Amino acid sequence: KRVMDKDVAGALSCAEEFIRWMEKQPGVDLEDMRIKILELVMGVEKKAFFAGTVKYAISCRRNYIHEIQEYTDIEGMKKWFLGKTSEICSNMESAREKEAVSIIEKAKSYIRDNYKKDISLDEVSREVDISPYYFSKLFKDSTEQNFIEYLTKIRIEKAKEFLVKPDISIKEAGIRSGYTDPNYFSRIFKKHTGKSPLEYKDEGESQQIS
Fold it and tell me: How far apart are CA 206 and CA 79, in angstroms?
């Protein structure tokens, strides 16, 4: 929404600045302005198309000329320009949101499948084919957690599952959760649960017995 508002505001500012300039040019009439405004709208569409966020057929423009010819004053043409630009920006924002959701879901799936490995933000960003910086920002905006926080959450939840199983030792639970250093595993587990792995395992096994 903020991106779309910014794009629309910029488009309106551009339109107003251009129309003010056109009004000062000798020999320029409303027909000249109509043509130029059509060029501007198609320019915005072209930018959206090459950004890969908007798809359309040539027939989508079929009514443009008829629509803009209905306006016989500058304010009406400005209104038409802003309406079209707002529609394009809205479609772009919707496409961006869908793309972001797809990227984050793919990243989450990769993390869930590979949490026990020594995976990094760079590795996951390569997996979803975007830059580490953009992935980091997109992930935080979408999940309200950074990459390490999310990975740690997954690992701790898995560790809990392993710890309550009598046939899995604390050390093995840590390794299966992605922590090869038992001491580090113990510290990070207690930090996030308030209990040591041993305390959590003893409580879990006691509950199973009772």
Answer: 71
Rounded to a whole number of angstroms, the distance between the first and last alpha carbons of the chain is 54
119-168 pLDDT, tens digit per residue, is 999 999 999 988 999 999 999 998 999 999 999 999 999 999 999 998 99
Within 10 A of 181 (CB to CB), how many other CB atoms are there?
Answer: 11
Query: What does the block give as tokens for 27?
Result: 């020999």
CA distance 71 to 19: 15
Residue 185 CA to residue 170 CA, distance in Å, equals 9
Taking alpha carbons only, the member of 167, 160, 107 closest to residue 134 is 107
Residues 51-85, buried b or exposed e (16+ Cβ, 10 A)? eebbeeeeeeeeebeeebeebeebeebbebbbebb
Dmax over Cα atoms in the chain, in whole Å?
Answer: 93
As a whole number of angstroms, the distance between CA 147 and CA 139 comes to: 7
Q: Cβ neighbours of residue 112 under 8 Å, at least 6 residues apart?
A: 154
Report pTM.
0.62
